[in-house]
Design brief:
With 179 residues, this protein is of the alpha/beta class. The chain has a domain of 124 residues: Hexapeptide repeat proteins (UDP N-Acetylglucosamine Acyltransferase, domain 1). It has two helices and 19 strands. The strands form five sheets. Strands 1-4-7-12-15 form a five-stranded parallel β-sheet, covered by helices on one side. Strand 18 and strand 19 form a beta hairpin. It is globular, with a radius of gyration of 18 Å. The termini are far apart. The model has no long low-confidence stretch (mean pLDDT 93).
Amino acid sequence: MRMLAYFLYLAVFRHTPEDYRPYALFFPWIRNRLVGVFADACGRQVRVKSNAEVSPHIRIGDRSELGTRCVIQSGVVIGDDVIMGPDVKIFSRNHRFEDTGTPVRDQGKRQDTVTIGNDVWIGANVVILPGVTIGDHAIVAAGAIVTRSVGEWTVVGGNPARRIRDRRESDHPPPDTRL
């Protein structure tokens, strides 16, 4: 049943329109249900946007949203209330390259779990590399390349992603009084 759901998702329903389109009909509902069937674990009220490339070996928490055209490889754990913008890439596999006497293509691959905490916002075009953990309540700014783990409540951005601030700090800095 899982493989049939995965096949139907890849072959047909992955490419169906978003729910805000007037012609979307029931397609988003089917897309969400199919991912719920083939994923290792899938919480309640998960939204899967159009053209999301999702591995069957992932875990998704309640009320999380997988962005339009995202790529999520196997071995990814996504917490509750996670939202992601379009074109997010979460990689859990990488090529081995330690043996300089062997071509990289012949050295195989290694897999490292990626864990996304609860209440995390991942902006558009973010790339998250294997082995990274993103803590609860973190924000990853659009376009960031996340190469190292991100702590709870931390806002990161850039390439490579660096700490911008703690979310618990004031959202409204004092006004600039210079003219």
